Amino acid sequence: MDCVKLAGIKIDNITLQDSLQKLEEFIKSGSPHLITTPNPEIIVAAQKDRELFDIINNSDLRLPDGISMVVVSKIKRIPLKERVSGIDFLLASCKLSARKGWRIFLLGSKKEAVETAGKNLSRQFPGLKIAGIHDGYFSDNNSESIISQIRQSKADILFAGLGGGRQEKWLKKNLAELGVKAAIGVGGSFDVISGIKKRAPIWVQKLYIEWLYRLVTEPNRWKRQLALPKFLWLTLLTSPDPLPEG
């Protein structure tokens, strides 16, 4: 696959449909694959986090999860085809899983949120096989029982909503033991699917101001929103050599 580099992070230049085709290849292969969803916030964080930087660049599929990334890539004349957000990939994967008979596991968020998300997904995609559900409130150094639960569920796909950075590191560390064919970090997607949080309307997304909608509806996110100008600085106004080799 073609890829675009933004601040040293590789982004696969794919559409949502392309990503679903790759997912099917991963599941047919029978071996574990890691899918990451780099967005401006994660890209900025990775500049000072060698482990996260390497996990993203060495993952099996890197989705372009941010409209600002698409805009920047066009300005730099290395255009990404489209944004493929983690939540859009999750929903499309569930629709395909219901048709293919793939089993999914939901890990992350609060217990009420992830359980409600599972119920909503089952209603939205009749026939979807949810192999298991677990909240994200556990110690990363004491994950044996959760790993065992996921493995015994015989899930094909694991969606982990553990927050940017943590989810990628946890999945990478435990991927070989989980027994799934594809694992992906989906951030706060369960909160949106459960209805606890609202996603920006389509017209807001098309105007490229989803960041503003989030800031207005969740003002406590203002520190996280500072990642956007940092991302623009890194990608448009500088030519960084992020993180020394080694």
Keywords:
WecG_TagA_CpsF; six-stranded parallel sheet; 14% strand; teichoic acid biosynthesis; 246 residues; alpha/beta; single chain; 13 helices; two-stranded antiparallel ribbon; cell wall biogenesis/degradation; disordered C terminus; TagA_TarA
How would you summarize the topology of this molecule?
Elements: E1 3-6, E2 9-12, H1 16-29, E3 33-36, H2 40-46, H3 50-57, E4 61-62, H4 67-75, H5 86-100, E5 103-108, H6 111-124, E6 129-134, H7 144-153, E7 157-161, H8 166-178, E8 182-185, H9 189-194, H10 202-206, H11 210-217, H12 222-225, H13 227-237
Parallel strand pairs: 3-4, 3-8, 5-6, 5-7, 7-8
Antiparallel strand pairs: 1-2
Helix pairs in contact: 1-5, 2-13
Describe the protein's architecture and organization.
It comes from candidate division WOR-1 bacterium RIFOXYB2_FULL_37_13. One of its GO terms (biological process) is cell wall organization. Pfam families: Glyco_tran_WecG. This is Glycosyl transferase. A 6-stranded parallel sheet has the order 4-3-8-7-5-6, with helices on both faces. It contains 13 helices and 8 strands. Helix 1 (16-29) packs across helix 5 (86-100) and helix 2 packs across helix 13. Helix content is 50%, strand content 14%. The chain has one domain (3-237). The protein is globular and about 50 Å long. By secondary structure, it is of the alpha/beta class. Mean pLDDT is 89; it is low at 240-246. Helix 8 links the parallel strand 7 (157-161) and strand 8.
